[in-house]
Amino acid sequence: MRDKAKTQRHRRAELTVIVTGAAGFVGMYTAQRLLDRGETVIGVDVFNDYYDPALKAARAAKLEAQDRFRMARMDIADVSGFAALVKASGAKRIVHLAAQAGVRYSLENPFAYERSNLAGHLSVLEACRHNGVEHLVYASSSSVYGDRPQSGEGFKESDAAVEPVSLYAATKRSGELMSYSYGRLYRLAQTGLRFFTVYGPMGRPDMAYFSFTKKIFAGEPIEVFGQGEMSRDFTYIDDIVTGVVAALDHAPPVGENRILNIGGGRPEGLMDMISTLEKAIGREAVKVYKPMQPGDVSRTFADVSKLKDITGYTPEVPIEVGLPRFVEWYRGFYG
């Protein structure tokens, strides 16, 4: 009987995944996808007030209503607390999505990035090192590539990532380098995902598509930076989560820190994004054109062939479909 109970505990641990940033946008959807396929998920989130706490609470409530989920309200930079959680869970896989997001906010609050993106990432690495974690998937960012306005091809993982134009980008690249060293030193298998612009229902209010929607509904002017000439590789949340979970299921060899782009695979012009929103909302935006903001980049474009080769990843939702879905959610959530 004792051996049987031990075996059952081991099987439960194998099906347990820790998701940091679980009250965040990508974190909530990732946790839900794992729950949907029968796994047990422990979410970790500090619930800061970087944006509307009510939105984070709504995401958390959706997860906490389910039996195989529990939320730990915790700062990942709490080294002893996070390590104790990982040890007690017995989890062998972690999806690390907690971070201080936002490029412009880093100009005002740089030490928030130092704590979450540097100290927090190191805390996660240490917990993995000392508790037998077999695969760590963590969020990096397309911002590590810097500004490449003239590039006609998708950004490749082999491209240089040595000229970050924001502190946010610098911290995400630093996380990749820390992970590389831990992989070599401690034989930890890791996958770093360079996210390109993620959007969709329950998304982040600081993102342009979200703030534009709010202002267009309110009849307020929107500020169009870069004179409207910027482009982004917009990636719908369902496609992102499909890639995250597929990456989790395809661990690299022990000791390897594998870097993968995860995006939509094509750049969309900022003005095309605005036009799509206007059609979905049924109202034209009042536009105020402004120059590029410090820390912004002109263009992002993911080459996702490496992720596709490993997992079969193929993004499916274009902005003509995804943005109207977001607008429909926005109407329902905010009335």
Please provide a brief summary of the model.
The chain is α/β, with parallel strands linked by helices.
Query: What is the top-level CATH class?
Result: Alpha Beta
- Count helical runs: 12
**Taking strands numbered 1, 2, ... along the chain, how are they ordered across the largest sheet?**
3-2-1-4-5-6-11
N- and C-termini, Cα separation: 55 Å
Q: Calculate the mean pLDDT score and round it.
A: 92
Would you kindly provide a written description of the structure presented here, covering whatever features stand out?
- This protein has one domain: NAD(P)-binding Rossmann-like Domain (Rossmann fold).
- α2 packs parallel to α3 (53-64), α2 crosses α9 and α6 (110-130) packs parallel to α7 (167-186).
- The protein has 335 residues and is α/β, with parallel strands linked by helices.
- It contains 12 helices and 13 strands.
- Mean pLDDT is 92; it is low at 4-10.
- The longest helix is centred in the middle third of the chain and has 21 residues, at 110-130.
- The chain has a 7-stranded parallel β-sheet, sandwiched between helices. The protein has a two-stranded parallel sheet with strand order 7-10. A two-stranded parallel sheet has the order 8-13.
- 45% of the residues lie in helices and 16% in strands.
- The chain has helices at 2-14, 25-36, 53-64, 79-89, 105-108, 110-130, 167-186, 208-218, 237-249, 270-281, 305-311, 319-334; strands at 16-20, 40-45, 69-73, 93-96, 135-141, 190-195, 198-199, 222-224, 231-232, 235-236, 257-262, 268-269, 287-289.
- The chain starts with a helix and ends with a helix.
